[in-house]
Amino acid sequence: MNALSDHIVIAPLLVPLLAGILLVLLRGSATPLRRNLSMLGVQALFAVSLTLLLKVQDGQMLVYQLGDWPAPFGIVLVADRLSAMMVLLTSILAFLVMLHAIHGSDRKGRHFHGLFQFQLFGLNGAFLTGDLFNLFVFFEVLLIASYGLLLHGGGAGRSRAGLHYVVINLVGSALFLFAVGTLYGVLGTLNMADLSLRIAALPADNRELVSAGALLLMLVFALKAALAPLHLWLPGAYANAGPAAAALFAIMTKVGAYAILRVYSLMLAPGAEGLPELVRSLLLALGMATIVLGTIGVLASRGLALMVAYLVLVSSGTLLSAFGIGGVEAMTAGLYYLLHSTLIAAALFLLTDNLAETRGRYRDRLQAGPMLPATNLLGGLFLLLAVAVVGLPPLSGFIGKVLILQAGLTNPWMPALFAVVLITGLLNLTAMVRAGSTLFFKTDPKASAAKLPEMDYLVPVIAFVVLIAVLVIYVGPIYDFARATALQLADPVSYIQAVLGDALRNPGS
Amino acid sequence: MEALIASAVGLMTACGVYLLLRARTFPVVLGLTLLSYAVNLFLFAMGRLRIGAPAIIAPGHSSMADPLPQALVLTAIVIGFGMTAFVVVLALRARADLGNDHVDGRRDA
Known about the structure:
The complex is a heterodimer. Chain A is mainly alpha-helical. Chain A has helices at 11-25, 31-56, 81-101, 112-128, 132-151, 156-187, 192-200, 207-224, 233-240, 243-248, 252-267, 275-300, 304-325, 328-358, 375-390, 396-407, 414-440, 455-473, 475-489, 492-505; strands at 62-65, 76-79. Chain A has a two-stranded antiparallel ribbon with strand order 1-2. Chain A is globular and about 75 Å long. By secondary structure, chain B is mainly alpha-helical. Chain B starts with a helix and ends in an 11-residue tail after the last helix. The model of chain B has no long low-confidence stretch (mean pLDDT 89).
């Protein structure tokens, strides 16, 4: 813990934290200065995230003991492939969203940049921490920043959606603390690696209590991941948020999915009888229910933003079903789908904003509006994103779904899974075709002429499309990386050894 | 003492959940507050209930209270306090924006 390069693990936390503090201090200064500072923070974050990923991609686990307190007593940050991948994904998303925001939408309210950086701080902390209570704290950090971002810009719709979002998440936090308390009361530790060891050595009469705590945790993470029936907060919140906030929120449901993966790969691995199967079948069944409910929402949406929010719900359900299938193949497929669905959701929210700005007072409502200028560009982007999001070949949604279905072939739920994924895919395609033809082909003769789309706002969308193309072209290496990540997750022993190495070697000291 | 603490946690949770399900923002905020009180008490009790035990190692005492839940409760209180302040302001803002204090902003309810 001497070399400077050892501190790379905490760098993804420090960069946005320092940038955020500076932005709060400079809140009265000129807008260009704050934009440049915020952009610089995001770029530095990208650089350190990439460095971190390159360091851990050979399978090494970097453990950072805060204050140099040894592992089960102090709080640790742990960077393995999964954490580093999520941190890098966050920083890429943040960069492109910031590229959108600095062209004007950050000026619709105060403190956008500070909140944005604190949101990144919370997200990266949640991805890197190795301690359950610390995970709670970072959840709170990212949530309170997201409350601010959601309300950014104001308006009645945002206030109403924000109130629902805040209240449901506060209840979620209370449940999180109940779960943490139960686990601590029985096991006497909150370090995730140590929890794993102690659960394995638990006397049989305390198992029910730990199972209750673990399922309560699952409830909280399912709430964050918008798993049915805890999904009702998502469509309203995402559809009412400003474009930059909604695009950044594309990673928020993934925090829940990540926490499920992390906690359950560690806590349920050794000998917790029946519980891993229960969690998996719950994830699979409720994931499929989420897909169905999301699709109904997609079909019923009268605005494009709401439709995209429901598509986020569908992708969240697909992701959790993949994790529910269980096994390395399904996990690999899920991780690939996670990358795809985050990028595509953000791209769709930004494109929706472009369309809404261009259509003037018709906004994103799915009804005949003014004739759109630059139809080839806007329509082409919409077509590409629609193809990717519903999972048609040749784009990444198709690859993700094929991988998931392939992994599900041997699962007893296979017929249901295939039926749900394929039929909802068709229904979502229908809805997207209808939305596209309404937006681009039908015109209202009474409408005033549409504004020209601004290239500044389209650049991030195009960048997202390029990234989705990268997911398709480099599917081989990305698949290999996802597989290596899944293998690492399936082997909790290496994680425990990396975190508790010293404590395991000299027990009792 | 165990029975008293357990029933206090249970009662506060029950009242909190009941108030949360009300249709006006003010009872909802009160419900959240009660729920967070219940959580704090619960976390505190998870370090086991002891009377007269020092929180840090002191000479002459063979047993001591577990200091970790106390630290957790302190964190939870701070976060809960901040969140309550936020949700109160948000409820006022929603009252101003929507014209009434119904959680869905419905005038008829």
